[in-house]
Design brief:
Elements (H helix, E strand, L loop, with lengths): L1 H39 L4 E8 L8 E10 L1 H30 L5 H24 L1 E9 L7 H16 L7 E8 L5 H9 L3 E6 L2 E5 L4
Parallel strand pairs: 3-4, 4-5
Antiparallel strand pairs: 1-2, 2-3, 5-6
Helix pairs in contact: 2-3, 4-5
Length: 212
Amino acid sequence: MEKVETIENDVLLNTDEQEITSYEKGHSFEDEFAQFMKRELKWEKVRVGAHMAGKANVKGSAIDVIGERLDQRGKNFSLIGIGWMLISLMSVAIALIYLIMDWGDGFLGLLIGGLMFLGGAFFTYQSNIFNKENAWVECKNLKGKVNINQISKSIREITDYRDSGNKEYKFEYHYFASASGYVENALKYAVDHNIICYQKEGNTFKRVGYWD
């Protein structure tokens, strides 16, 4: 009896170790692609692991990685804001010189400079809050190739989030990263649905397409 219990305990222990190893491998792969996104794809922020509640799936779908950066409008707003603030600081500096040297009324310059600074700050705030784009990323660190069912599941999840009406994230990009490649019909299905596919290659990731 004791021998049977020992065998059962060993089986449970080995199963737990396999699950932990599988989780760690998956998490490490996700983190690796997240860093690739920042380094090569110019995403300003990345977050590994999140849940997004959808319209049908209220509990939420697990997302491996989320990326965030300013969209083109946000970049334009940010440049305008920074430009206005720099000009306003110059105006304030000139107005202070006028006041110190008693060359004339510098208060008007201070007022204009202050208003311009507030305008620049407003544009910068707008760019940081309202003009962002996000990336939804699915990662698979498996021995086998990604199949069409896994691609289809990812499409259903991001579609469900969009249908929910949640405006917190604006997912303009949908990435799929695989350690072992893609089955042919899965890759075609992904490309047809505007999913950008990457495959691990050495110490980096290579974008792959159906006609590559």
